Amino acid sequence: MLNDLFYAVLGMLPWTCALIAALLVLRHFARTTLSARFFRLAWLILAVRLALPVSFAVPVQDRPAPLSIPLPTAAAPAESGGAQQAAASEPGKAVPVPSAPAPAGPLRSRPGLAGAVWLVGAALCLAARLAAYGTSMRRLRRGRVPLADETLADACRAAFGRSMRVYAVAGLDTPMLAGLLRPAVYLPEGAGLRADTLPYVLAHEARHRSAGDIPFQFVLAAACALHWFDPLVWCMARAARQDMELACDEAVLAGRDMAYRRAYGAAVLDVLASARRRRISALTTGFASGAGETRCRFAEMLSLRKKQRGTPLLCLLLALVVLASTLVACAAPARSDTAAPVYKGGTPQPTAGDAPEERLERLREELQTLQAEIGRLEALAAQDSSLEEIQRQYLQAQQEWAEWSAAVPEGAPSGGAAQFAWPLPGYTTLSSDFGTARRVYGAKDVHTGMDIPAPAGTPVYAAADGAASLNNHWVMGISVKLDHGGSLATLYGHLSACAVKDGDLVEKGQLIGYVGSTGNSTGNHLHFEVDLNGDPVSAWPYLNAE
């Protein structure tokens, strides 16, 4: 999950950097032509997309399923749950279930180092921004005094269209709107703000509230935290905060004459003159600003030139964002960290541990080629002579698997049949039983064991004492055979991992592996088989023996 999120953030890097750079260039050359509201909305579109690093579409092509040629010893159960086939051939019999505790399954793969570094950086960046916001709000709440003047209440209703909570704060340099859930106006206490300046201040902060600039600040904080390594995202956040102020000035002064514009500019100068510093508290909006931004604001205040809204450009930007997100999602196929072994005839070669990345890629390509060939042969089975080669491989693999199943490992205990314990405690429903009829490429076949569906990683226990022999075959996948002496053996197939080593002497009820879907399998399940003199037999008489 962590790596997927990290790769999603990296996948957004090329096209988001290109769009941010293009908007910064457009902002520099077209500031006098396009309105500040256009740039504010453009930054909002990009910030929301950066703060939500998710795909808009499912992958176009998933990794193909492993090559599957059914054999008599292979299992073909339904998905976990086994609701599509009959349970057992003799449903009246009770299955003994031991009460052994279930240990934890195999550990999942841990996230990569790059993903961990990115997560730590994102967490620290977001925590710092939220801590600064919390400190600012605590400072404002500790020093605030409610203002209940009737003239002030009338001014708030005129600016906000409703009553508004207004506080005076000692030591505050500039009026501001603060608070995510319940925003309020905070004014400098005493002589920090003149009465004739107040209507313009309230009108400015009312525009901030109606435009949703405080939630916008939190979206920018999230985007900067997730993309803390990208300097263009920080440039975008700085430009967005400047355009917020310009858009509010633009909205307040829309349709106003030059006299009102000069009075509004005088109010800004009055606030700047009384402010000891011009830094705005984190995740709030302020009336004053820095020197460079103030010069730009005054130039816009005194300009009567009508600017374009840029609606077509906004639609184009939104379309580009959606299109780029969709193309990135389609170009990222589902990732898989494992590859099924491919049978090429001869002695089966077990796959131990994680293969190198180049081997995984080669196996994936080989699987795709073989899967396409099998589909073609199935469609042309009636007239295509190439089917004989598949039938030859089928018979060869069947013989090799039978030879391994019949082999007796050294150190096997001697003795006769004993009562077997149920190998999968808590899971007694069967999706396929011993002797179930099947048809493989036109030939009749029967199932050689019982299939017990269970979630991946479910512990599998030894049915009786025996000597362990391990194998990794393309038919039964990762499997364990226990020889119990007296020509009696049990087989545990399609495991995800083994908990014993080749040649170990295990005891009844001992953990030997975990449920999986390796080999020729269509779902997570355990293939449990009993062999007598090298031939598969029904397990029910041994499970129910007294």
List the helices and strands and how they pair.
Elements: H1 2-29, H2 36-51, H3 113-143, E1 144-146, H4 150-160, E2 166-169, E3 176-178, E4 184-188, H5 198-211, H6 213-226, H7 231-253, H8 258-274, E5 285-286, H9 291-301, H10 311-330, H11 357-379, H12 387-406, E6 437-440, E7 443-446, E8 450-453, E9 459-461, E10 466-473, E11 477-483, E12 488-498, E13 505-506, E14 511-515, E15 525-532, E16 535-537, H13 540-543
Helix pairs in contact: 1-2, 1-3, 1-7, 1-10, 2-6, 2-7, 2-10, 3-6, 4-5, 5-7, 6-7, 7-9
Précis, in short:
42% of the residues lie in helices and 14% in strands. With 546 residues, it is α+β, with helices and mostly antiparallel strands. A hairpin with a 2-residue loop joins strand 15 (525-532) and strand 16 (535-537).
Provide the β-strand percentage band. 5-15%
Largest sheet: 9 strands, antiparallel
Evaluate the radius of gyration: 36 Å
Order of helices and strands: HHHEHEEEHHHHEHHHHEEEEEEEEEEEH
Low-confidence segments, ≥5 residues, pLDDT <50? 58-111, 330-353, 408-417
Q: What distance lies between the first and last C-alpha atoms, to the nearest angstrom? A: 49 Å
Distinct helical segment count: 13
Class per helix and strand makeup: alpha+beta
Helix fraction, binned, reads 40-55%
Mean pLDDT: 75
Query: What is the global morphology?
Result: elongated
How many strands appear in the DSSP assignment?
A: 16
